Amino acid sequence: MATAVAVASALALTSGAATAAESGWKMGKPRLTTPWTNQVSPTNALPEYPRPQLVRENWQNLNGVWEFAGAAPGEVPPFGEKLAEKILVPYPAESALSGIQRHEDYMWYRRTFTVPKNWNVGRDNTLRINFGAVDYKAKVYVNGKEVAAHQGGYGAFSADVTSALKPKGEQEIIVGVEDRADATWQPVGKQRLVPDRGIFYEGASGIWQTVWMEPVAAKHVGTLGMVPDLKSSTLKLTVDTGGSSGLTVEAVVRDGRKVVSRSKASAAGTISLPVPKAKLWSPDSPFLYDLDVELKDGRRTVDKVSSYFGMREYGTTKGADGKLRFTLNGKILFLQSTLDQGYWPDGIYTAPTDQALRFDLEQHKVLGFNTVRKHIKTEPDRWYHHADKLGLLVWQDMPSMRTGGRPPVDAQQQFKAELKELVEQKKNWTSIVGYVPFNEGWAEWSREETGKVAESVKAQDPTRLVNAHSGVNCCDSLGDSGKGDVLDWHSYPGPAKPMPDAKRISIDGEHGGYGLEVKDHMWFGEGHAYEMVKDQATLNSRYVQNQRDVLASAQSCGISGSIYTQITDVEHEVNGFFTYDRQVKKMDFAQVRAVNQAIIRNADGSGSGAPDPGPGTPGITGVHAYKFDEGTGSSAADSVGTANATLTNTQWAGGVEGGALAFAGNGQADTGANLVNTAGSYSVSAWAKLDEAGGAFQTVVSQDTGRDSAFFLQYSGQDQRWAMSFVGLRALSPEKPQVGKWYHLTGVRDAKTGTLSLYVDGTKVASQNACSAAPSTGHTVIGRGQYGGQQVDFLRGAVDDVRFYDRPLSDAEVATLAKRD
């Protein structure tokens, strides 16, 4: 049913196999293999230069076969001892590619290395050993001496090991690692010690990014800071020299072989490098300038590094429709994205090869996306380098702590420290558009603190957007802090439709998730998704329609981006464009590309503006009304219109004034008609009282759609509050209602302002951003709701004086309705 992924030419597997046998390493047995699994061998474990933005000529890769052993807490490092097992670095211990394929809370890595004589280490240069990432706590020893300690599974670190080196010959390096994953509060992202066959996956412990060494002068370039400034057509360059003073910098900007500018200045402070008539970086034209930097002490060059940068600027502006939108280089651009979790069936956290690492990003471009959300994970530097070169914008998540509960103070502080490290190490990548500290309230500890975290990230890197909380409407969220540059909702299948406010753009942070099982290409042999479909044709049509809804939301609601779940299947989730093994395309990519490109092309900020629903019918009588004063019979009269309600399993009772209708958890009053235009403005009011107020939902008034009610005026059992609701969105009363007490409830949908509001006893108690709603033609019903095509949420209580309006009532009108004569 689908096309297999093209595989690059295979490497010399015969010599690789011989080398593997000689080394004692043996690949484990992955449940699924990717097109690159069998290209991995001890001689080619990610051999590429690992730091594309700070390149030096001399370096040596330390990836390959290391000795390995599980350990006990507090164990003495095994100096000079051969360890029993062999592991292929840098693949996580749990992965098949590592050869270990199990988790250890504590572990040792060991190998030997020699230092090339021509590096002049100990005379002209020092020796640094660099680690891309080690999960989670690492201690590094060279020749029995501790040379580095690092905490955090996603940050790079390095060590000057010069003082620990022997004069010549083999040098021993041992790395001790502790990774207890979600048994602690350490940031783990989606990793779990016990995967849940849901949205949490296999762990990835130990060394999982490249290890390498290089000779570095005592006075050297530690890091480069590069900030493009389009207004002045310059690159603002800062050179970290580790505190060395009196140094100068000579910098050359190149366009290929052409020299664009030469600059010379003190290494202290910021240097403005001219980039005249700058070629701007964008998804359609991802142009990158080369940068050569020489660090000089007097006339003597002490260090030389090469790098690159893109001239681009991220910002916001109001569109023609008055809504705040995202801009790239001053022009409105819709951020059309997928969710990319960066998991592999053979390497788990680590792609088997650099080609594989690039593959997923290349497919984003093939599919017509211009953005990727790196979800609850980071990647090796080369991933961001590929994104820069391909022209893909990147939302960068902070890997979250575990779900369930709120973290203690020490864990909060460590999370913030690791977030600061992430921003510091990622802020030079051209492609990163913004940072996402929190997701769906996972391990969030305070709404106020979430806001402070967002402000701290913005202060650290003011050139990018900060999305304080992706999915702030969802799950464990403590609510909107009001901070950052982005308001982000999740909705499945969605899309989510938050409206921008005066200071923040809005995006649909997650939606979609349509799933299709593909035999022989599933991690567990079966899978799940937010909505399963039966075949590829259905999957194509559901995706295309869903994306048309995204465009409608962009035009009418003003969202600046959307993120579809997801680029590939991951373990039990089968909602990718590709199967988990990257072997099968699950959709028609031409159809996907066409609709994606249409969104980017037409979500230009012109919009359709807010709808003009017209004035509606004046007065507070309503367009339909039910007094329930009959006291007998099987129907209730519509005292204003002609939609009399048919009664099922109800009783007549005393009301606020005159009669009322009582419900015992299985009754309804079906008006037999569609009383409310749910795509426009309307109001619904009723007197209601509850016989019980527990954890069950109970609906006072709703309108059927065939699937889910278009609205619910209800008691939300989950929140134990009154609510005016759409699916996934509730305007809630501040207090739990008392059993047996009459309350006047009014729900108001204002299509022009894009709000959904709840009034209790004549006072507005809550309002939610709800920019659009789909029309519905189902019956309006009193006493129950509809969800998933089923009749649900039956009321246990009584209702009196239900009224419907074809316009939003004013505060004064609602207050008048709530008065008792």
TrEMBL record:
GO MF: hydrolase activity, hydrolyzing O-glycosyl compounds
Signal peptide: 1-20
SMART domains, sorted: LamGL
Polar residues bias locations: 34-44
One Pfam short name: Glyco_hydro_2
Stretch list, region Disordered: 26-45, 602-625
GO biological process, one term: carbohydrate metabolic process
InterPro entries given in the database record: Beta-gal/glucu_dom_sf, ConA-like_dom_sf, Galactose-bd-like_sf, GH, GH2_Domain-Containing, Glyco_hydro_2_N, Ig-like_fold, Ig-like_GH2
Keyword annotations of the record: Disulfide bond, Glycosidase, Hydrolase, Signal
Coiled-coil regions listed: none
Domain LamG-like jellyroll fold per the UniProt entry, residue ranges: 680-812
Family the UniProt entry places it in: Belongs to the glycosyl hydrolase 2 family.
Protein name, UniProt field: Glycoside hydrolase family 2
